[in-house]
Structures are given as C-alpha cells and as structure tokens.
Automatic annotation (TrEMBL):
InterPro entries: ATPase_NBD, GppA/Ppx_hydrolase, Ppx_GppA_C, Ppx_GppA_N, PyroPPase_GppA_Ppx. Gene3D superfamilies: 3.30.420.40, Exopolyphosphatase. Domain 2 (3.30.420.150), Hypothetical protein af1432 (1.10.3210.10). Residues 30-307 form the Ppx/GppA phosphatase N-terminal domain. Keywords: Hydrolase. This is Exopolyphosphatase. Residues 317-483 form the Ppx/GppA phosphatase C-terminal domain. SUPFAM superfamilies: Actin-like ATPase domain (SSF53067), HD-domain/PDEase-like (SSF109604). Signal peptide: none annotated.
Length: 499
C-alpha cells in the first residue's frame, strides 16, 4: 500500500498521485518521477458537483456527499492497481467553506487511506500557478485565472514565481445557483452576473493592472469549454473579449440548444453561462485583451511539488521568513524559542515530524502580535496567524499555528482543542505546553540557560531543572505561576532537580 503520510520528496522512478477535490469536479492524476521532470501517466475526472445544494451556511448536501464518496471509491481502485509510492489529496472551496465538512472528510480519509488537506484559497492559487508553470515556459509577467465551481483564483506572477495570489467567492456552480437557477438566459442576466464579478474584482483591480502582464492564461474545465467555443483559426483556444460578448449574445438568443454546444456534457453545459459571466467580468474589470487556455492546473501543481522540484517545506520557510520581515520579529530570540519548544516536544514518546515542524514555525512567529501592541500580544498573534495569507500551509495547519500563538501565555480559560485530522487533542496539549514553556524559558530574552529535560505523562510532564536554574529566582517564580495556570486545566507540571 502507498505511503499516505510521507512528506519527503519522491525519488526518481516513484509513481505518485494527486487528487483535487473541487467544488464541481474531482480530479485524479498519476505520474512517474523522472530525472528532470514528471511524466503524467493517467488522468481521471468526474463531475461530482460537491457544491450543489449547499445551504445558506455552506453545509454540504447529503446527495453531494454521497456522490463524492462514490467517486473516491472508484479513485481508490485506480490507486490500488498503480503501485503508488505517495499520494496527496487537496480539497478546495466547497470543503473549506462547509461547516459540516467532516461528514465528508472522515469517510473520504478511510476510503483513500490518506489525509485530506483542505487548503486556503491563496494556497490553491499558488499550486495552480505551479501547475501552469510546469506545463509552459513562463517568462515576463503572467496573469493566470482559474474558474472553479465555487471560487475563482487569480495569480499574477513573474516567470515561474507567483507575486499576487487571490481567491474570490465566485464560481460556475455558485453563480449558476445565484443568477441562472431556473435555466433562463438573457442579456440582462449575463450583465447582472458579470457586474457582480466585476464588483468582487474592484479591490484588487489596481494592484493587478499596475504590475501588468504580457500573457493571460486560463485553466480548468470552465475556461477550456469556453476556449473551445470561442477559439477560431488560426489561433484555436485564444479567447478575446469580443468572442465572449458574442457567445453571451448567442446564448441569450438561442439558449443551450445551439448545435455548436452538442459536444459538451449536460453537467458542463448547465454551468457554462455562469462561468462565461464570471470570465467576462474578469476581462472587463482587468482590461484583458486576450487569453490562452492551458491544460494544467491544481493537480499538476501538487504533482510537481510532490516530485521535489521545490520542497514543500521551503515554501513554508519562505512564508515564515516573509512574516518575520513584515512584523519586524527579533529572529534571534524567536529562533531560540522555536528550538527549545521543538526540543521539549521531541522528548515525548511519539513525536510527529510534521507537528515538530509546525511547532518550530509557531515558535518563530510567536511574537508577530508585537507589531500591533505589547498588551495582549498573544491574542494579536493568534488573530494575525488565523487571518494572514500563509502560502504552503493548509487550513488545519494554519488553524493550529493560530491556536498555539493565541494561547502561548497567560490564562487558558477560553482554550478548547480543535477538531483536526492533523493533531489529536492530546497532541495539541503537548505542543501548546512545549511552546508555553519555551516562551517562558526565554522570557526577557534569557538565552544563556540550557533547555530543560522533560518526561511526558498522559496529563502533563515532569520538568527536570539544571542546578544552574536554582540561581534564577525570576525563572523559578515564572515556572510556579505557570504550574498554577496549567493546573486550572488539569494539566500537571512537576518540577524536580536533575540528578
């Protein structure tokens, strides 16, 4: 069976797989890692329409959940016959929005024997750009747009490097439900839907147009279908605004019964008007002259990253370094806190490599809240980490970082463990205790004392203090206060002198 939790880069000759759980379609890609590239061996796509029937709070409909799980059962059969070394499963808009996502995620994990990474919109955008960059030789400035079932991702990059990443809540399924639910098409409805898209683009319009781009590239199923309908010789697949306007007019006059739409499936045809309106809104708002279709997107981006061309950890490291610069963090102090926290956690009986790395990131970022105010710094840190764009991190990883940042010090009255696939309640407790003790150990920029030894128990830990600590009355007082704070949660910290 394939290794579902292996975060190491794949080796040459390995067969790897990526699954993209989109709001409209699920995609499976299987690839072989070669010496200087990845070779796609097999692709499977099924239109599941996971976002269809979501209620006002975003909860997934039972029928959509059933369709999605049935699709994954088929995907699992492909995986079992392909000798997969590694697999990564990423989920996008529908699952990141759904409060009841665990109704789908828990059985999906059992079917695939793999964790389901629900990723933020900006992380989706980053991976989409990576997929396009591996399929095309990108030079100069490029604008990449991907219209999905529930969201639209826009990336402006320079060569293979993304610069601006945005994800907007407008997709072909959500706009279909909002503007074309009864199936009636008219110029007035297209204008209304396109104007709604333009309104969502208003806030980012200036930043994108100021940087500019030489090439606009569209990807995924919606834009592919539009490119097939709009592209004309000698440039098939080229989309212009005039062609989009003409397609809107044709749909308004003749509906979906036009013979030129016969090659499209019923499910794709049903959401075509909404996707067309969103794309037209993008053209109008951003002043796009023309766009070329690219048959690579999120799943290819995941595959490339798994292949080790750019290690995923390096993306997280770049993000953390950018946060350190943005919030003027004392990196020497933060690194000391991170090292001590990881050292304490790794003395537990079963330390987890991924959680160790996250704890290290949390230590390096524990003072981002100082950029707002010293008073309530831990609350500011939790808020910043919860609401910042953090490329490379999944939603659960970001939630855990924010939780650690929020409760790194002071009282724990409001603390409640999160329901995560990533870390159990006990693991969250261990990570938090390790970080709190590390922050306390280095309070006041105290960096000369060797880190303590700990022995972990089910309800807490025993802290062995070096004799040199006995000459630090302030640290001893801080430790005694921490004992009291943790005891209020029934977390025990026993302090003994090392022998």
């Amino acid at each position: 069976m394939y290794d579902t939790m292996n975060n190491q880069a794949a080796r040459i000759g390995d067969t790897i797989a990526a699954i993209d759980l989109g709001s409209n379609s699920f995609h499976l890609a299987i690839a072989r890692v070669l010496e200087n590239r990845v070779q796609i061996l097999h692709r499977v796509k099924q239109r599941v329409q996971l976002a269809e029937g979501m209620d006002d709070e975003g909860n997934l409909a039972e029928a959509a959940i059933a369709r999605g799980l049935a699709c994954l059962t088929q995907f699992a059969q492909h995986l079992q016959t392909s000798q997969i070394s590694q697999i990564r499963v990423v989920a996008t808009y529908a699952l990141r929005r759904a409060p009841n996502r665990n109704r789908f995620v828990k059985p999906a994990r059992k079917i695939l024997n793999s964790r389901i990474d629900v990723i933020p919109g900006t992380e989706e955008a980053r991976l989409i750009y990576r997929g396009v960059a591996q399929a095309r030789q990108l030079e100069n400035h490029n604008l990449v747009i991907d219209i999905g079932g529930g969201s639209t991702e826009l990336v402006l990059g320079q060569g293979p490097t993304p610069i601006l990443l945005e994800s907007l809540d407008m997709g072909c399924v959500s706009y279909q439900d909002r503007f074309f639910a009864d199936g009636k098409l008219s110029a007035k409805r297209f204008d209304k839907a396109s104007l709604a898209a333009q309104q969502q683009l208003e806030l980012l319009q200036e930043r994108y147009t100021q940087l500019g781009w030489q090439h606009a590239i569209g990807c995924s199923g919606t834009i592919k279908a539009i490119a097939q309908l709009c592209g004309e010789p000698p440039l098939p697949g080229l989309i212009t605004q005039d062609a989009l306007e003409s397609l809107c007019q044709r749909l308004s006059e003749h509906g979906l019964s036009d013979p030129r739409f016969a090659h499209l499936s019923d499910s794709r045809l049903r959401v075509l008007p909404a996707g067309l309106a969103v794309l037209l809104g993008c053209f109008r708002a951003l002043g796009i002259d023309n766009m070329q279709f690219c048959d690579a997107a999120l799943r290819e981006g995941v595959i490339v990253e798994m292949s080790g061309e750019q290690p995923h950890d390096s993306v997280c490291a770049t993000t953390v370094a950018a946060m350190e610069r943005l919030h003027h963090i004392d990196t020497t102090h933060a690194s000391q806190v991170a090292q001590t926290a990881v050292s304490l956690y790794q003395q537990s009986s079963q330390p987890n490599d991924e959680l160790s790395a996250l704890l290290g990131w949390a230590g390096r970022l524990h003072e981002v809240g100082l950029s707002l105010n010293f008073k309530g710094m831990h609350r500011h840190t939790g808020y910043i980490l919860a609401h910042s764009n953090l490329p490379g991190f999944t939603i659960e990883q970001q939630q855990l970082l924010a939780l650690l940042g929020r409760f790194q010090r002071k009282r724990l009255d409001d603390f409640a463990p999160l329901e995560l696939e990533l870390a159990s309640a006990q693991q969250q407790q261990q990570l938090l205790m390790a970080l709190r003790l590390a922050v306390l150990w280095h309070l006041g920029r105290r960096h000369t004392l060797p880190p303590p030894r700990v022995t972990w128990h089910s309800d807490g830990l025993t802290l062995e203090l070096n004799p040199s600590v006995q000459t630090e009355p302030l640290l001893l007082a801080d430790l005694q206060q921490e004992q009291q704070l943790l005891a209020a949660r029934s977390w025990q910290v026993k302090i003994v002198a090392s022998t």
